[in-house]
Amino acid sequence: MADSSNAPLLQSRSSYGSTDKTSTRHDSIDSEAAGEIRPSRDVEDDVLPETSTIGRNLSWQSAYILVISRVVGSGIFATPGTIVQSVGSAGLSLSLWVVGAFIAACGLAVSLEFGCMLPRSGGDKVYLEFAYRRPRLLASTLFAMYAVLLGFTASNCIIFSKYALFALGVEATDVLSKSLAVGLLTFVCITHSVFPKAGVKIQDVLGWIKIGIIVFMILSGFYVVIFRPNTTSAPLTHQLAWEHLWEETSWNWGVIATSLFKVFYSFAGLDNAANVMNEVKQPVRTLRSVALTALGTACGLYMLVNIAYFLVVPIEEIRGSGELIAALFFERLFGEKFGRVVLPTAVALSSVGNVMVVAFAMARMKQEIARQGFLPYSSLLSSSRPFNSPMGGFIIHYIPSFLVMILPPSDSIYSLILDIDGYAAQLIGLAVAIGLVKLRFQRPDLKRPFKAWMPATAGLRGGSVVRSVCGVFVGYSCGWCRVLVSLDEGGAEVEGHEVAGGDVCFGGWDDDNEAKLFLERSEETVVVHCR
Predict the structure, then answer these.
(1) Would the CA dihedral through 281, 283, 68, 292 be positive or negative?
(2) Could you list the residue ranges that cross the membrane (predicted)?
(3) pLDDT for residue 7
């Protein structure tokens, strides 16, 4: 028999619960007798912690920044304004942020139960593989396709390039914007690959700078109102009075659903630390405290920033400017010249921090995919040599991000990413929530250091369904979403083109606020006037 010291470290030696794995252990013994060592296939192997070859070098602070920098990105400077522009009132806008926070908490509860039960790098990949073991390798294959093909950081690279050029007073041509975006991506991947410890320190510093900028914005808004009541901003407190809070509200479901999609997208990433659990010190305890702290921080920052906007910027200007709300905020506080420099600089720094933490986590996830042999040259791509970092994971991450940035026109990149990645992420979230309920009944014996409240899983499933269909129907606001023409069973005639019910279309907004739809079936472009 082969030396037992050569057996896999994570091979289960006793049943975790009441389920007997006799046949599996017999197969393992037979394999050892034949001189062949195979990894154990026991389900319980997955519930044991696994330490990365890099070591557990992520402290609580680094894990917290990894999450909060992923959640609070550059969207905090634009998304509140676009939501007010869509729904029309401060009251409904703030209500949607509360609903979004509740759904985010439900999703986090599900992720925490899985993450504390399966404390290993990979996040949703590990959860889906554990919950859906039949057909064999189906969950692994589908998630590998999603992570490799759609797991990129192109959007914030493009945002960084445009705002950095604006701050420098340079015209943002298509070539220059793409070149600067690719340069940022290259810098991030090289830094994390060659200088892993320095990369973590840089993203920690950028994370705290981002939080500091947002706190400064909040305090500035409240300072203007509390300590300078004679300024032009003082009368704007009436915008938050109950009698004015709901003025000009749009109660159309299409508008509300699209706005909810944007809110949900703003809370994405609360489970980012789960992707690097093999490198986190005291993984279960850290994951639980970091995720809950980040959720509270994100909710507080989003709500207070919205209130600060309403205290400084007139609601009429917000409705007319949309995503430029932060520009109006800084302009009214510090003047046009100073505001034109502060805002783009803040957005650019926020984007860099977001790119660094996303690339850091995604590279680890893709390294785990390579370890399973789903990619060519898996042994090379899964290695941590020569810099004791997942360089192969960064290479896998770099290629699709690079292609997404250079192939489409830069103006349509962000819309394309939000469309494709948003819907795939919601389907994965729905599958994870269903898998959790499934395991509650099939494997009640598993140890769960954190147990999600069952209504939370129902809330997540409902939220995932809403997010998946919120932009599906052509209505008053289809935004960047993938749309399905389903006006009635007989279809509809749009601008002289016959559109059959059920035709799949891809759409986005042009400068005239018209939804341009591309009919996949007929390969025609039609224009739908919807506001």
Answers:
(1) negative
(2) 63-84, 96-116, 137-163, 175-195, 207-226, 251-270, 290-312, 341-363, 395-417, 423-441
(3) 38
